Amino acid sequence: MKLYMSVDMEGISGLPDDTFVDSSKPNYERGRKIMTDEANHVIDEAFKNGCREVIVNDSHSKMNNLLIERLHPEARLISGDVKPFSMVQGLDDTYDGAVFVGYHARASMRGVMSHSMIFGVRHFYINDQAVGELGFNAYVAGYYGVPVIMAAGDSEAAAEAEELIPNVTTAAVKETVSRSAVKCLTPEKAGRLLRERMAYAIQNRGQVKPLTPPDRPVLRIEFANYGQAEWASLMPGAEIEPQTTTVRYQAKDILEAYQAMLVMTELAMRTTFS
């Protein structure tokens, strides 16, 4: 079994706020160590349960957070930015399953540090389906016929995964109290939970179907203000829906929709004030 693993940071246990996930803030180095340790629990359990190869994609911010010198020696790491497919870089049809670790809830929803790529996004839609990072990434996996067999993160991310992906295994390593406060498992207990759930996810993988994306999907991004929508609409083929802050893009497939999302959110971040 070949496993793909995308690791974000906001859903790691013990990390309640941006001081742990922003490289300029005081708790970031602590956050990196805890993040790497959580990834290792999942990687090690995957190898113990029959995986022959585990590829890990660092999926947070500049995507260079995981400490390779502390990472499981048999894993391979995709690290750094810019990546053409960001949080799902390297994912293709050679994988038997995907695992998302450290994930958080989508923008505008309850959940610790909830957001969708940037803080200027209110909602992503694929046709009429509201998705966040978790859902969008699962659609890309589904394009390749790869099921997301486990999603780990805060309690709200786990609930989001269960709503989108029937029979997915989830591991909630912390319970949301507010957007910047959580009730956490200790790293030791979180590690035990992740190992238990990873072992179960591998056993249960036959019960999980890929999240198949629609053909020729329409991507719609609702931004927080009109300036962000103006910047995003500069991408060829994108247009602002009248009297809204929503930008619409007709994609040929989910891969094009994903890259369009990356371009539009990068453009939107050029807005100088809100």
UniProtKB/TrEMBL annotation:
Pfam families xref list: Peptidase_M55
Catalytic center residues: H115 (nucleophile)
Keywords: Aminopeptidase, Hydrolase, Metal-binding, Protease, Zinc
Ligand binding (Zn(2+) 2): D8, H60, H104, E133
Keyword Phosphoprotein part of the UniProt annotation: no
Binding residue positions for Zn(2+) 1: D8, E10
Keyword match Repressor: no
Gene Ontology MF term list: aminopeptidase activity; metal ion binding
Protein name, as recorded: D-aminopeptidase
Organism for this UniProt entry: Bacillus licheniformis
